[in-house]
Specification:
Elements (H helix, E strand, L loop, with lengths): L7 E6 L6 H10 L3 E5 L1 H9 L11 E4 L16 E9 L1 H8 L6 H11 L4 E5 L6 E5 L2 E5 L3 H10 L5 E4 L2 H15 L2
Parallel strand pairs: 1-2, 1-4, 2-3, 4-5, 5-8
Antiparallel strand pairs: 6-7
């Protein structure tokens, strides 16, 4: 097993298929990364028939403990950045209202409490979107509450909300420059 370097990237996957494949490719391009996989994300990986191509030093934490035990790593400076991408409307709503009942919502809360910068790629950002489903492209129409919650999340401290894959790539590149990685 490769030596684990800290601080490192934390990446949380939710159950959204919105640019899921592209997000997985980005995860694979990061050097030192830990992946936090929600139960729903585990299902989506199978639906999209993705094989995770992770760096050798990557660790994968699955949503299998009631207390979300891996969140304790945030207290000890293990992470310099948390990326939550793609983020479902359900996850965004829970984050906005402080509900920490899954591994992903718990890492979001703990990153915030530990002042670890957070980048969120929200899925529901426009009244009409095209997204890839397992059987091809589909149109979706986010509800007003979903759009409002995305806007609310933008007001959180140390949290950058991006609305497109291009914005996510830009913000990740910017963060890498800040960290000199």
């Amino acid at each position: 097993m490769a030596k684990i370097k800290t601080p490192r990237w934390g990446w949380a996957l939710t159950g959204s298929g919105h640019f899921f494949k592209e997000c997985l490719r980005m995860v694979g391009s990061l050097g030192e990364v830990d992946l936090f996989v929600s139960r729903a994300a585990g299902e989506v990986v199978r639906m999209y028939r993705q094989e995770l191509q992770l760096p050798k030093t990557a660790r994968v934490f699955r949503d299998t403990t009631a207390s979300s035990a891996p969140v304790g790593l945030f207290y000890y400076g293990t992470y310099h950045t948390l990326i939550l991408a793609p983020a479902t409307s359900n996850t965004v709503a829970k984050c906005v209202f402080g509900i920490s009942d899954t591994l992903v919502t718990n890492v979001f809360a703990q990153a915030g409490k530990c002042r670890v910068p957070i980048i969120v790629f929200a899925c529901d950002t426009a009244p009409e979107l095209e997204t890839e489903a397992p059987k091809g492209m589909v149109k979706v129409y986010p509800r007003a509450i979903d759009l409002k919650n995305t806007e609310r999340l933008k007001l959180f401290e140390d949290t950058t909300v991006v609305e497109t894959l291009e914005e996510l790539e830009k913000v990740l590149t910017q963060r890498k420059c800040e960290l000199h990685v």
